[in-house]
Specification:
homodimer; alpha/beta; Arc Repressor Mutant, subunit A; Rossmann fold; 14 strands
């Protein structure tokens, strides 16, 4: 008979034992593990081995490393049920507890939705792993399905090959099961809002034109302009920001008062810089902003806008996004033959 | 105690009795009912009353009127289970057995998907009913959910008010739960195909710019042009077809060999006419066609294209659309608080 299973390393066996402990009821979220030295003694392995086992648990999101202070239990261990285990895979090179505000919010909403459906979920960041290493790790855990938040197309490709059901969040491919913000409609609403406020020369600022999200956002703007009977102008489309020369071209455009009277900002990280520039130079420009699903940016900007008018903008509920993703994944696990579809959660326009 | 239930009319009571018979196991799909005269005798009611009862069953899709030849059983009666009853509502003024090829295909796929999930579904066309009359009828049947194929926004509005779970097929509103073809991506793929074939001046022909579908299709075209570095030209966008003057403008454009070298046709009913015109006048224009989900149009055109090259085009699977709609409705019935989302089924590009 061919041998298809390799024997586990000592570090892997030790990680299994640690994991079993963590999944027991004597360990709570936030507990701090004993020191590496003590753990090595207890499990009768070397310091090097225990460190390697702990780093596996870190990768899996069971514990976090507290930077010289030890390891803290991260994953809720109550009610762990392997048959309902799913994973949340982040395509970032940072570790999963170093997520940005949006990814963090998405992750905590995914946890909440998963829990309410009786599922257990753990987070796994790509860091320096290859897509196939991620896949291997997920198979080891016998996950029933995966939610992927990554632009990297290799991760879903590998998961598909391995037959693991998956749902992307905010994906760049129309051929993958996904849940997204409604890029087209968001951009359409923003542009239309400026049109309704009397703007005739509206510029667009955004990026990611190589990805479907960017294409849809540009399309929403161009479509709304055409339908309003307004011309589009190549020089009014400032893509691939943030990029200093591109920012310069906005400054040039906005200085020439005849050039543009409205601006759709599809890249929220730039809002502060743009608003500062406009107010310093006393340039009035009607703004419409893609707040995104990131509550933090919105709040930061609102604070900054105490004296200025807070611009109109669109946002979506991360909570809706996460809940849709979990429901979709559950459906796909139950019915792997289900046709592929992208689901767009609604964008909401707020004008104050 | 306030009286909230009115007593049923004789015609309604008789319809109930007939319905109970139809739901029994002695009646098969395709059976022909006895004559009105015989039925009136059997149920001891007047001809007028039995006609009125039968017309209720026609409305509900249980039987169809065969125009002087009697009534035929339309609805599969096996396994009828009121607790799983859903409806397919068509916003057309024609009756539901007079659907066009696409609606008919969608309906038969909805039936198939529903059946495979143990649900019973009946069709109901708007005809001359008001939205609230439709809603009343659905409530009478105690449907658990409704799939709506209609541009009329009043039908979903009324259903929402009545708290009946619903999923739209191909809806015009981003605020409604729906399953759609991926309009943006379809248009993007078609335009991009022409770009990749060397076209530099691509025209767009479509309609429905007042609805989100049209806006998205226009957006896909404009976005693809911009990203390819090509200019869009207002006179190359021929909307609100079919309209003779608009067709004339295409003819004018295509005669001037420098004006356009490619054409995206987003309104499949026009394909034949356009192709005939081009071939009669020996005008070469690269075409890219929105075949839609309608297998009939595609086949008709393919037959016509025996001597000419069949143009590249995109289509979606009506089967995917129907299955997604049924799954989505099932999910919404189980979880009415589920966030609203539009689901886009994939568009497939075929170049021969």
């Amino acid at each position: 008979m061919p041998k298809i299973i390799r024997s586990k390393s000592l570090a892997e066996k030790t990680a299994d034992k640690l994991r079993a402990q963590l999944e027991g009821n004597n360990v709570s979220l936030g507990d701090i593990l004993c020191s590496e030295r003590e753990l090595a003694l207890q499990y009768k392995v070397s310091r090097k081995t225990i460190r390697s086992s702990l780093s596996m648990l870190v990768q899996e999101g069971f514990v976090v490393s507290l930077d010289r202070k030890g390891y803290q239990v991260k994953k809720p261990t109550v009610g762990t049920d392997k048959s309902q285990l799913i994973a949340y895979v982040l395509g970032t090179e940072t570790r999963h507890w170093e997520m940005d505000a949006y990814s963090h919010e998405a992750w905590s909403q995914v946890q909440k939705s998963a829990l309410s459906m009786g599922k257990n979920v753990f987070a796994l960041a790509k860091e320096d792993m290859s897509a196939s290493q991620i896949c291997e790790r997920l198979l080891q855990h016998q996950v029933k399905g995966v939610i992927v938040n990554a632009d990297d197309p290799e991760i879903p490709l590998e998961l598909n090959k391995a037959g693991i059901p998956l749902v992307m969040i905010d994906t760049a491919s129309p051929k993958l099961e996904s849940v997204n913000q409604d890029n087209f409609n968001g951009a359409y609403q923003l542009t239309n809002h400026l049109v309704e406020n009397g703007c005739k020369n509206i510029a667009w600022m955004g990026r990611h034109l190589e990805l479907i999200q960017g294409q849809e956002r540009l399309g929403g703007y161009l479509s709304a302009l055409h339908i309003a009977g307004l011309k589009s102008n190549k020089t009014h489309i400032i893509s691939s920001v943030p990029d200093k020369t591109k920012l310069e071209s906005l400054k040039k455009l906005s200085k020439d008062s005849k050039a543009i009277d409205g601006l759709v900002i599809m890249w929220p990280q730039l809002i502060e810089e743009v608003v500062d520039y406009l107010s310093e130079n006393k340039i009035h420009l009607e703004l419409a902003v893609w707040w995104g699903g990131n509550p933090e940016i919105k709040d930061i900007c609102k604070k900054k806008f105490k004296k200025q008018k807070v611009p109109a903008g669109v946002h979506w509920n991360v909570c809706d996004l996460a809940e849709s993703a979990i429901l979709k994944l559950d459906e796909r696990i139950r019915n792997p033959e289900k046709p592929i579809g992208r689901t767009m959660v609604s964008m909401h326009l707020t004008t104050k």
